[in-house]
Amino acid sequence: MTVVDVAGARTRTDRLERIWAHRPGVTGWLTTTDHKRIGLLYLFTTLAFFVAGGVEALLIRTQLAAPNGTVLSPSSYNAVMTMHGVTMIFLFVIPMTTGAFGNYLVPLMIGARDMAFPRMNALSYWLFLASGCFLYAGLFAGSGPNAGWFDYVPLALRQYDPGANIDVYALGLIFNGMSSTAAAINFITTIFKLRAPGMSMNRMPLFCFAILAVSFSLLFALPPLTINCVFLELQRQIGFHFFDVAHGGDPLLWQYLFWIFGHPEVYIIVLPAFGIATSIIPTFAQRRMVAFPLVAIAELLVAFIGFGVFAHHMFATGLSTITLIFFAAASMLVVIPSTIQVFAWLFTVTGGRPDFKAPLLFIGGFIVFFVAGGLSGIMFAAIPFDQALTDTYFVVAHFHFIIFGAAVFPLLGGLYYWFPKVTGRMYHEGWAQASFWVTFVGTALTFFPMHIVGLLGMTRRVYTYGPGLGWSGYNLAETVGAFVLAAGLLLIAANLALSRFRGEPADADPFFGGTLEWTVPSPPPPYNFAVVPLVTSPYPNWDRADREADALRLARGDLVLDEGHETPSSTVRDARLDEILEMPSDSPWPLAVAACVALVFVMLLTRHAVVAGLAAGLTAIALCGWHLQEPEET
To answer: DSSP for 329-365?
Structure first.
């Protein structure tokens, strides 16, 4: 490239810097629509909720460490146990995977400059933050949810729980569901319409397939949960009888609607972990993913089949035999696409030249716990076994092997893997590997003994137990494991926090990753790509000729799109260039809309219907302002 070419490329990137520059200070963060900044907001918010959920877990384990524990009263234990589940599922894992990892990485991986709906993206974050604050405000006010994260009726009805606890739960989950629904719509549109030219569906990164599957699952799974919570509030507040047998209702209706959400939710949590694994494994094995098309299809099939498994949570409720057999078969069928992925991961590692750095170690731990949790899950597909162990700690053990071991371990590996990309600094590899082993041992010691104590008859949700039952040693081991696990997580946090300021500088591609995010500087510029990248394979960063062609096109000014907040859209299947879109700029309206919606829910909780109606009117006015605001001209 000539000197003139370099000067021209520099001029164009300088112009992009000015066009896409963030507003300075706190105002910039409050009004941002940049997917990377929103991803970071999700990251730190979910980590704060993770700390809260972790403290709740340690309180639970301390209470159960020995017989006749007195750390928590029965009512406090119920509230802490419920908020632990609600926090980890609705305020940590789902928003961490989709909100933090998905927001930050999907546009970078598909060659886009932002999400399809940047302001709706910001709104989804502010709604999520407000819903989490709503739930925890109820807890700190002494009215936190207290009937389990599944909130079964009739225990959740007003005659058994007359306080505001269940109302906080129902309204909080409706509130939270609005955020997840907006995010799901945004991801689907972004993945279908904003892929770089040439990135046809068969060339899209597997992480994006996982986020796409999760997004469709959220769209179909959240409405049953929302309707369920609406029914519950109508019965509690107005006197409807959806769950009242004496008036033609049925308490099992709650379980049906809840588990239509609740079991797909397990795959909503785990699928992004699959996507993270399929990003990390090829990088550190230095080879393309084995059976790439099968893995992509398997990710979609896991989400699809997951909707046919929900009633295996209800095998002890008296369902007909034919119904039990159908759902038992579906529970076994979902193993097939999961197994395809496990073998693809293992064959990719063993067929390559694996470099077992910390990210790959965490993926190895994930595979161990996923296989172990999956095997115990298959055991629950056996109807007599499920009926015998329903509501015991064997269920808790299985659930946590999947939710923590199989979902959180890839998140921890992903934090290390993309840390250099986000911060421009390298983490300390030695401490990272040490943190893996401490976390792995702590996880195994915490959750494996739960299988045994469950087989010995310990039921879930008990707040204490008497001596002489044979449970004491196992519970003590679980509590020790929980604190070891906490120490491992603190090591990870300390490593990343110190590396953020003292780590070695990282270049654009420290691990030689295969996907597009490794083609841009670390951290990425506000506009992501100086020129819309060319894509001819699923691992475009390994196609050096294409990246050299990008540099030449930048010098010529081809598809630089430096006339405003512009990004290209493409056709859904083949990703042919369709049109150039003008993206909206930063705006205060998403925050304003979220604040108005939060006021609506607070007023509904406190039974100020008129003020709630006025707040809904303010929401409509804020939406009008949102749509009257035109993108800034540059």
So the answer is: HHHHHTHHHHHHHHHHHHHHHHHS-----HHHHHHHH
Handedness of CA 495, 496, 498, 501 (dihedral sign): positive
pLDDT in tens, 11-25: 888 898 999 988 889
Closest Cα to residue 465, out of 57, 129, 141, 69? 69
Which position has the token pair 């990282």?
Answer: 506
Q: What is the pLDDT of residue 630?
A: 58
Residue with tokens 């421009």: 424
Q: Cβ(251)–Cβ(154) under 8 Å? A: yes
Contact between 113 and 527 under an 8 Å Cβ cutoff? The reply is yes
Nearest of 356, 344, 361, 207 to residue 276 by alpha carbon? 207
d(CA 440, CA 148): 27
What are the residue ranges in the chain where pLDDT is below 50? Answer: 1-4, 631, 633-634
CB within 8 A of 349, min separation 6: which ones?
281, 285, 360
Q: At 313, list the tokens.
A: 């949570």
Cα radius of gyration rounded to whole Å, the chain: 25
Per the CB < 8 A criterion, the answer to whether 338 and 374 are in contact is yes
Q: Report the C-alpha gap between 274 and 281 in whole angstroms.
A: 11
CA distance 182 to 550: 33
Question: Would you state the structure tokens that stand for residue 227, as one six-digit string?
Answer: 């309707």
Q: Report pLDDT for 480.
A: 98
pLDDT at 629: 58
Burial of 354 (0-12, 13-18, 19+ CB in 10 A): middle
289 vs 280: CA distance, rounded Å: 10
CB 330 within 8 A of CB 311: no
